[in-house]
Amino acid sequence: MSRVSLSPDAAPGWAPDRSNGVVLVSCGEPAGVGPEIAAKAWAARGADLPFVYLGDPAHLPAGTPFVRVSEPAEAPQAARHGLPVLPHPFPDPAEPGRPSAANATEVIAVIARAVDLIRQGAAGALCTAPIHKHALQSGAGFAFPGHTEYLAHLAGDVPVVMMLASSCVAPGLRVVPATIHIALSEVPRALTPALLEQVIRITHAGLRRDFALAAPRLALAGLNPHAGEDGAMGPEEIAWIAPLAGKLRAEGMDLAGPLPPDTMFHPAARARYDAAICAYHDQALIPIKTLDFAGGVNLTLGLPFVRTSPDHGTAFNIAGRGIADPASMLAALEMARDLARRRATGRAA
Ligand SMILES: NC(=O)C1=CN([C@@H]2O[C@H](COP(=O)(O)OP(=O)(O)OC[C@H]3O[C@@H](n4cnc5c(N)ncnc54)[C@H](O)[C@@H]3O)[C@@H](O)[C@H]2O)C=CC1
Ligand SMILES: NCC(=O)COP(=O)(O)O
Question: Which cellular compartments is it found in (predicted)?
Answer without folding.
Answer: Cytoplasm
